[in-house]
User: Fold these one by one.
Assistant:
Number 1:
Amino acid sequence: MSLVTFGELRYGAEKSQQRTKALEALDHLRGLIPVIPADSAVAESYGTVRVHLERAGTPIGNNDLWIAAHALALNLTLISNSTREFERVPRLKLDNWVD
């Protein structure tokens, strides 16, 4: 999973009413799905995609932009049940396992 996704999940676990249980579940998930680090290729992808979306007048949220850029840079398919914003990103391979 993208390190940005992991960060968002960690944030949710930290503020959870059941923090300990949520952090344990997150640790279990991290054992099943490794956190993929970002490098300069991800940053380059972020800059390119952000400019493209801004020029098109279709920007997306900052964390979603980083997640999309991460998937693009590594030529991975992004799995999400919230695809509305991600669909604006050109060349992004996207799949929704819920619908």
Note: The first helix runs from residue 3 to 14.
Number 2:
Amino acid sequence: IGEVQSWLEKSTTHSVSCESNASHDTESVPVEKLLVMVTTCGKAVGPNRAKFHSQAGHYIKYKISLFFPEWKEVDQHFKDAVWNKLTTEFKFNIPVTLARIHLEKR
């Protein structure tokens, strides 16, 4: 599980390298979260829907083997790590805990 969280943390970075005369520093830049609209049926809609699904798929498919034919069989710690990573990049039109419940049903 620690390996998964480490990979998720490294898989996307939101930092910018700034050059100075003395040395190379990395400065963290605030990232604007993309809004994903979630319907009451649990469907992601809107202009950022495809990007959300793409990122979720990237994080999930890279680390989950085909051994897990169903999401409900995947370790909860892994699910939490993926969700936490996604919430650093996306915001929702409904409370984040409700968004997760709706989106994981699909």
Note: The helical segments are 2-11, 49-63, 76-86, 96-105.
Number 3:
Amino acid sequence: MKKILLTLLILLSINIKAQLKEMRAVWVTNVDSPVLLSDESISAAMDYLASININVIFPVVWNKGYTLFPSEVMESIFSKPIWPTVTGRDPLKQIILEAHRNGIEVIPWFEFGFSPSYSLNGGHILAAFPSWAGKNNQGQLLVKNGFDWMAGTNPEVQNFMISLITELLDNYDVDGVQGDDRLPAMPVEGGYDSVTVAIYKSEHNGAAPPQNYEDTNWKKWRADKLTEFFARMKDSVKSKGDHLIMSVAPSPYPWGFDNYLQDSKTWLQQHIPENMIPQLYRDNLSSYQFELLNALNYVPADEKDIFFAGVLGKAGSYVITPKLLLDQVGLNRQKGVKGESIFFYEALRVNDNQLGDTLAATFYADDALLPYRGNNDFRPKAEIVNEEDSGASFIGNWELRPVMGYKPNVYWTNDTNYAEFRWDFDVPAEAWYDVYTFLVPNTIFTANANYTIFSMNDSINVVISQKNSQNKRWVKIGTAYITTGNKTVVKLDNTMLEPGKFLLADAVMLMINRKLSPDVVITSIKVGDEDYDLSQPSSFLMLQNYPNPFNPSTKIKFSVPNSLLSNQSVIGSVVSLKVFDVLGREIKTLLNEEMSSGEYEITFDGNNLASGIYYCVLRAGDYSKSIKLVLMK
């Protein structure tokens, strides 16, 4: 017994990067949060989210009539290019860079949708275009819960929103676009603006819409117009790239339909959203369970994998307790929901990161791919070679200095003799890559740092100022098509160095460009320091069970190799898969037979077991691995 338990403890020390498929998302706001106010806070936030295995973020890009990215559309129409608080910066650009560096997808969130302002009579948007205003049946500006509304049924308003969305997609390498409880939406009291009335009359032989905004047919007509717009919005997104995800986080159906004309049931039936996250915001488990089960009732069987849950983490002074958060996430898994999005980022950081760290220790303990990406690691973490890594080398007189760059040190030179620095990468996939270097600008550094990027059949020379204060942190050198393998990707030399100045060498980063390489599939995963591809197994491998925690059954995947490593037994040896309890007692034998090469999936049923922790151990010859199973009834 002691020998078995000791063996289990040794096996449990092996680090496995699990190939789960779950969405672990969070909304990032510009309200009640300072995270978007500096590049440094954005970087720290993305580092933390990556540390707790978040794999997608929804950063706000449209709030109270302002974009959170420099917008030529807003500048040309309203002379309002960006949210005034961040004038001179581009928070979206920075959040994309830092999130993608960490392997996190970025789906911009058009939070305010068809609402141009909050309690400002429509603000600068309706001041410029009064005909865009939503109206109630008394002819007054459409206002609900303090939010002022445009008429979402007005084609000009719809075209304006699409122009903002397509502008963003043209200018940024993002992973999709998200609407919410205000996009597409319109308060049920609306629809009485002159444009909407004219459209209604043209389709009803000149008859005016009913004065009763609750009229069944009138509600359906307006909701259908919003659904038609949503389909057109998706088409506009997809025209910019089929890899771009159409996400939406509506109010729960049927409440959203009855109050905001959001017919999310029909949206799913028409396969419009590719990522559906109803806002199931409740502060107790019974209410949350009611909303979750109600929402699942309206999800077609073929759309279950795109359904996720919106979980309220923080609102004003309210912060969800760790227990309630775990209960809600656990309920999601029990009901087959493969992930959630938490509102909002700051919830994870309050009380010394209590909620985020709780998730990282439980449900988010292992990495996960996004379910709607199949087996594609669509946003792999960026490849980084620091100046002191083995992939870095130099010629000439370079001095290591204790300057805080990407990491504590940097190299620099002011030598007049030739000097160069090279960064070699083990390039994981043939694709287009954005190439960055880390800079800490200072007047002592050169304005003429001469970089060379080596692409597939060519080289690209770029001169960058290392003294310009705008060139700080990760600075893009260029974009190049690079083939797989170990090779020099970037060279820096002093051929343009001014007298008396220093040339700085710090980290260089490669980040896949999905606008240019949307179809590149990356299926390898890491176990320790080695890469594996489950579709062509070259060694034994067992992945984390899914779901986990589970009730009452879970699936366990493993692979049997088609070629052997030197320390593994011959193919044809017996493969055993057994479950033990925490005392090392064998609970069940799931498998004990010879296996041919391939990928396998075994279902473990814990229906007759008590809630608790169990261990599943795979053995084949001298190979063995274990995973922790959490049964939660």
Note: The two ends are 28 Å apart (CA to CA).
